[in-house]
Known about the structure:
Layout: H1 2-6, H2 23-33, H3 49-60, H4 70-81, H5 87-105, H6 111-135, H7 146-170
Helix pairs in contact: 2-3, 2-4, 3-5, 3-6, 3-7, 4-5, 5-6, 6-7
Amino acid sequence: MVRAALQPRGRLNRGPRKGVTVIPAISVVLMSCLAMLPVVTNRGGWPEFGFLMLVAWRLLRADAWPAWWAAPLGFVNDLLTGAPIGLSVALWTFVMLLMDLVDRRTQWRDYWIEWAVAAGLIILAETAEWKVAAWGGAPVPFKEMLPSIVVSVLAFPLFAHIASSLDRWRLGR
């Protein structure tokens, strides 16, 4: 009876799950795959799911992956979403480096500051994509980008929740 009480139950004393280092990257790739769903709209108002997941993971855990992982994840996103090859590679790498600077400059962050940082990064990314599209011969008025930006900023807390839930699961908490 005493021996049964001393035996660990469930995941206690076992440490993190196997493959915990790739779960953040897999979740970003799976979110990028959502762009392949057969949804037809007159206007693009959908957020860039992979980018939102990348920002959510990076704001949640700076140690989840090194900054250079943004390049291969961006390449996969470019392949899956049909964006010009190299756009997400450069943009996501720049965003990861910018978040490293934010981490060094801030002493503490709360929920609202992280949401504001994410909103700034989303606006930066959407503006850069709009500019690249204009250079590529698809001039769209910037006001057409506003619904996508608003939806992305408002959807960020959902992605932060998904990332934190996955983080708790992968670490066995």
